[in-house]
Amino acid sequence: MSHGWNANDIPDQRGRTAVVTGANSGIGLHTARELARHGARVLLACRDETRGREAESRIRSAVTGADVTFVPLDLADLGSVREFAGTHAPARLDLLINNAGVMALPYGTTADGFERQFGINHLGHFALTGLLLPRLLDTPGARVVTVSSGMHALSDLDMGDLNSERKYRRWIAYGRSKSANLLFVHELARRLTRAGSRLVAAAAHPGYAATNLHSAAARMENRRAVERFFELGNRIVAQSASAGALPTLYAATAPGVRPDSFTGPGPLGWRGAPVPSWRTGWTRDDVTSERLWVASEQLTGVAYPDLAP
């Protein structure tokens, strides 16, 4: 992996189609913009139509001839996920970027009754990937990239309390949802390899990037001091959102990306060019990843295609 890899190193994406969840702001917006800049057709899968269409306009203003389209997708509602897959998904799909997420929210549930962080960050993307998997499998060179976080290290999963019903601690729940992202990638990559498929499932994380993700919970709860603290951190400490998108773009486009790899900004996992990132051992545990997979199929009602060879 080249130490100085940047957006100029993205290979030509003409003829390729990408779906980017949460593409209306932050990492997702910059990921979508760079894919479009290099020729990809990009579907901006966003919950909020106003913000999604604003993102569409911003990318078209920044990239001459950009082929970008807003499509509605609410990962907190499995009905919306199914509607997206049945109505808006492209016939050919080269890249699925599972980017959207929430962080350290006060306790709440999705439309289907799941704890919000687990429901949106993991279950929504698990269902979306499963529903789109046949199209990905049919596309040579396709990849699925799921955005996790270095903060997955805050906690492994509690398989007996996936919805944090016994005790809810917002940062622990966030860490569990990000561990779930990595376990999902691990199990998907394992099953694809066993089936002899060349579809690549990989993970990435942005390090500390200046986005609105950190302050969203404080804004919801009107905690102005906390919101200002994160805003100050974004200005002084964080790298830009465009830099934070580079690990995702690397995992999505760079040659030779390995299944179940985890790319982040290096070398300390905070900022810098994309490099292989450290991850906890529990995110590569075969027993836990299979148990989570089975539980996720049951919770979402999405049965994955048979990947047996």
- Beta-strand residue fraction: 5-15%
Spans with pLDDT under 50 lasting ≥5 residues? 214-219, 229-234
Sheet of most strands: 8 strands, mixed
Give the proportion of residues in helices. Answer: 40-55%
**Strand pairing plus helix content: what structural class?**
alpha/beta
What integer is the average pLDDT?
90
Task: Give me the strand/helix succession.
Answer: EHEHEHEHEHEHHHHEEH
- Count of individual beta strands: 8
- Report the end-to-end length measured between terminal Cα atoms: 31 Å
Tell me the Rg in angstroms. 18 Å
Count of helix runs: 10
Spatially, the strands of the biggest sheet line up as 3-2-1-4-5-6-7-8
Global geometry = globular
Protein model, in words:
- The protein has 309 residues and is an alpha/beta fold.
- It is 42% helix and 12% strand.
- It is built from ten helices and eight strands.
- Strands 3-2-1-4-5-6-7-8 form an eight-stranded mixed sheet, sandwiched between helices.
- Helix 5 links the parallel strand 5 and strand 6.
- Helix 3 packs parallel to helix 4, helix 4 runs parallel beside helix 5 and helix 4 crosses helix 10.
- About 4% of the residues have low confidence.
